[in-house]
Design brief:
By secondary structure, the chain is of the alpha+beta class. Helix content is about 30%, strand content about 30%. The chain has three domains: about 120 residues, PH-domain like (Roll); about 130 residues, Rossmann fold (3-Layer(aba) Sandwich), CATH 3.40.50.10330; about 230 residues, Sandwich (Tumour Suppressor Smad4). Strand 3 and strand 4 form a beta hairpin. It binds adenosine-5'-triphosphate (ATP). InterPro entries: ATP-NAD_kinase_N, CERK_C, CERK_PH, Diacylglycerol_kinase_cat_dom, Lipid_Phosphate_FormReg, NAD/diacylglycerol_kinase_sf.
Amino acid sequence: METDLRLESSLWIGNKRYRAVLTGWHFNWTEVDKKNRNKKTISVPVAEVVGVEEGRVEILPHKSVEDSDKDFTVCYVKRSSSGGSYGLLWRLGRTQFSCPSRVLRDQWIKHLRTALKTHSPLRPHRLLVFINPFGGKRKGRQIYHSLVAPLFELAGISAHVTVTDRANQARDYLLKKDLTGFDGVVCVGGDGMFSEILHGLIGRTQQEAGLCENDPSVTLQPCPLHIGIIPAGSTDCVCYATVGVIDPVTSALHIIIGDSQPLDVCSVHHASALVRYSVSLLGYGFYGDVLAESEKHRWMGPLRYDYSGTMMYLSNRSYAGIVQYLPADPLLSSPRDKTRCLSGCSVCSRSTERLFPHSADSASMCSSHFSQLSCDSEDEWVSIKGQFRCVSLTCMSSSCPKSPLGLSPSAHLADGTGDLIVVWDTHPLGFLKFLYRHTNTQDQFDLPFVEVHRVKAFRFFLPSDKEEEGYEEIGSLSGTVDKEERVCSVETVSRTGSQQYLVDREVQREKPNEQKTASSFLCGLCCSKAPAVSVWNCDGEILPFTDILCRVHGQLVRLYARGIEDGAAMHDFSETEKSERSRILHK
Ligand SMILES: Nc1ncnc2c1ncn2[C@@H]1O[C@H](COP(=O)(O)OP(=O)(O)OP(=O)(O)O)[C@@H](O)[C@H]1O
């Protein structure tokens, strides 16, 4: 195949002569001077060629073609620095080549197009696009039509576009309508819109497979359709954490070339029913309170999160709870190993083999990695009980512009695990230090009141009355726990037949006197009526239940993305080295 696709000849760009070579994986052109000496080489991986067109093609402001039978135009991905972000911006590169004859021109077009088909089999031909016209700054429609649609047209992608009239319209469409012939679904919006698509696609796939989503022990079927995210929301965390930049053109190019990034998804259950799926943040305590508070101040726009964060910090709350988790294999990776899940991540690649051991095409098989939440594994559950500032689970780093390394900097996108972060009750300055470290490169887990565990599943429930009395003696709970919630939590434990190994933790941690004073001062300011129970923030939605059971489903969906490209490393490379590195990463 490689030799069939090879083609080499002289080509002209303007009046300069180039030696052009198509090797199968790469298309290179090297300027040749009058003395036949080679000058600079441009190398483009075939997988990153967007399209090959006859004639001299202009793209902006509208596509136009100057027909000439000796010319052809190649459009491809060009990288540039994204400034502050970790990842790289992608832009459309375009070069117009001239050939000495029409026969040679046609040969180049044919070879390049065949190479494209061979080396990027996942390129979409038909896409279903949902635009939320009210997401973020309400620019979804404009972003799609001015920046994305022209690129799709250039790449020959046909798009069936729906501008939504209501929340959950996209989800309902995916659950009910005929999806035959579509290769993927694109959402133009923020994390809420992505979540709709996620729920629709996962639900549809399980319906068709006859699987029950309510049962956490069921191994769910991976979704056959890819998801593309064109960021146009006020929070675009999933896009940032999987691409490295929030940029509609970069995301559109990832979709066009058919990049494929598997993603772990956490299912959240309560009392024998699926509540929601989560990919980024499932947080109780501080993160739940901030979301609940911010909902009261929607009129403030995105500023409401900063305002509510400050208010909730000042109210100095902590909550009693019991956290149980099923640890992931510590030999495979650790949340403290200082690695980063970047494009071509070896931990995630090895996980694909582990999660789908009998399949060459991993996406077509059910995951067999998780040997079920069965009674056999009950002995492996670890339990912690105490008074917490926050308890959170994240299936990805959850990096975002405000927290460039994220909630768990070493978390992986597709290794079938999540990182459970437990922050014990502590003095306000300690908690501030923890929060502040999310905005810089200091290790937020290197604090005595923080622990992090890589897990396959986790449960949370409120302590029983008796246990709670113990916590109340400590003096932090001022309200009462809803009776119904307590009953639910007891039911959950008995339903799962929990015989967990309870590691009781010392709840009361020694606090220096000044810290106590600072704490009571701040407390007096804001938290005279602190509730005894918080809420769960599940990817930006408030859950109506406190006691939950969560399970991570490895690589349940695939995005049109490739993970974060290491911008720092890429900048030190020449064009040739960059594309070589990229080829190796994606081989
Ligand atoms: N036409 C519509 N009218 C109202 N709501 C919609 C519509 N289409 C989608 N939605 C809902 O709007 C919510 C927010 O959308 P999205 O995530 O795109 O924007 P956002 O500005 O990032 O949101 P957030 O306010 O959550 O930060 C989603 O949960 C989605 O279900």
